[in-house]
Design a protein that fits this description.
This protein has about 400 residues and is an alpha/beta fold. It has 16 helices and eight strands. Helix content is about 50%, strand content about 10%. Strand 6 and strand 7 form a beta hairpin. The model has no long low-confidence stretch (mean pLDDT about 90).
């Protein structure tokens, strides 16, 4: 590597990754005490195939567990405040989140706020958590959001009609337990949406301004794992090898972006999701090729080189060495469009129902670290043009 070595700090929870890892949860939760709270969704209860056995094992260990079962909607500030207040009042020792990103973000935020004062809405405005939250154990049942690894939770603020994060290392999970068996309950639609979120996270982390040598290694491995398994998991949800590779790729993408930040796709995706109630991963997939094309047009050497690396991996052994990084970068973009079409997903924002009149409100809400770390500089005019070009 030429030039001065780029310094970095790396954060991560304890990670347990194996098939049937759910059986370890009573022991892991028991490390923190006997009084617990479990936050999950109706899908996990109905389709995971392990929920009754898990609850039986927890109770057999003498644990008292309050269950909070919710529909699969995105978490709100009001919901977090309610659960944090209950955890405080009941002197809960730990909170276990099992589910997709929404359930994990809700459990994580509630655990973080349980020993801190004030509403989650205040922390969305940038207030720091003063104290460590109560122990949070994260169990993802989707392969995409990476919420089990990150130090932030994305919440809908219904009063302000915005979708913003609260963040801080005091919110990190004490343990992230990843079990590919639990991801088989995802239907093809959820598989594609969450998988595209994971792929976007890996690619954005790879070219982020905050990327570092370790996050680059993780992003590369994540891209390889996800690209090699997403379509297989989409077409055959019972293929446990594909599910395992997707969960592994999602984990690596989360480790990458939680340390290297994201880019303009995620900068746009949060306001689009909040304003138009469109699934996050679906927005990411439709935007990804267009943001990549925008970044590539910036003629930034490192971006072209890294997109070229992605293109070479997507082509595989048939990649001709004579192709330039710019040609391979274009191949990567076209390959992602082909993947979207193969899963019958929109490749443009118009396919999600967005119209030109929606653009000003989206741009107004597009801000934060994701935009700041996009490799090509942006402005209000360039963001509006990017969205118009994406329609």
């Amino acid at each position: 590597m030429d030039g001065e070595f780029k310094p970095f700090t790396f954060r991560s929870p304890r990670i347990v990754f194996k098939r049937n890892a759910w059986k370890d949860l009573p022991r892991i939760c028991g490390e923190f005490g006997k009084q617990g709270m479990l936050v999950t969704g109706t899908t996990v209860m109905a389709k995971s195939g392990v929920y009754p056995a898990l609850m039986g094992d927890l109770k057999a260990q003498g644990m008292v567990v309050r269950e909070i079962v919710r529909e699969g909607r995105e978490p709100t500030v009001r919901e977090v405040d309610s659960i944090a207040s209950a955890a405080r009042a009941e002197c809960v020792d730990w909170i276990l989140g099992i589910g997709g990103g929404s359930a994990l973000d809700l459990a994580k935020a509630a655990a973080g706020l349980a020993r801190n004062e004030g509403s989650a809405g205040v922390y969305q405005e940038g207030k720091d958590l003063a104290k460590e939250g109560i122990p949070f154990v994260a169990v993802p049942t989707t392969a995409g959001t990476g919420s089990e690894i990150t130090n932030n939770a994305v919440l809908i603020n219904e009063q302000r009609r915005v979708k913003l994060s609260i963040r801080g290392d005091k919110m990190l999970a004490r343990a992230a337990v990843l079990d590919p068996v639990l991801t088989r309950s995802m239907n093809p639609q959820v598989t594609s949406h969450t998988g595209l979120d994971a792929l976007t996270q890996a690619i954005e982390a790879y070219v982020s301004k905050a990327a570092n040598p370790l996050s680059d290694l993780l992003a590369e491995k994540a891209i390889e794992a996800i690209w090699g398994s997403l379509y297989g998991a989409f077409t055959n949800g019972n293929d446990l090898n594909a599910r395992e590779q997707m969960l592994y790729g999602s984990l690596l993408s989360a480790l990458a972006f939680s340390n290297a930040k994201l880019g303009a796709v995620h900068g746009f995706a949060h306001p689009i999701g909040a304003l138009h109630d469109i699934p996050h991963g679906l927005v990411c997939g439709a935007l990804l090729p267009h943001v990549m094309r925008f970044n590539l047009a910036g003629n930034i050497h490192e971006v072209t080189r890294k997109y070229g690396w992605i293109g070479r991996k997507m082509i595989g052994k048939g990649a001709r060495e004579s192709l330039s990084d710019a040609d391979l970068a274009s191949t990567a973009i076209n390959s992602i469009i082909d993947l979207l079409e193969s899963m019958r997903l929109p490749t443009r924002l118009a396919g999600l129902g967005l119209k030109p009149a929606d653009i000003p409100a989206i741009v107004e809400q597009t801000k934060g670290s994701s935009l700041q770390n996009n490799p090509r500089e942006t402005s209000k005019d360039s963001l509006e043009k990017l969205l118009r070009d994406s329609l």
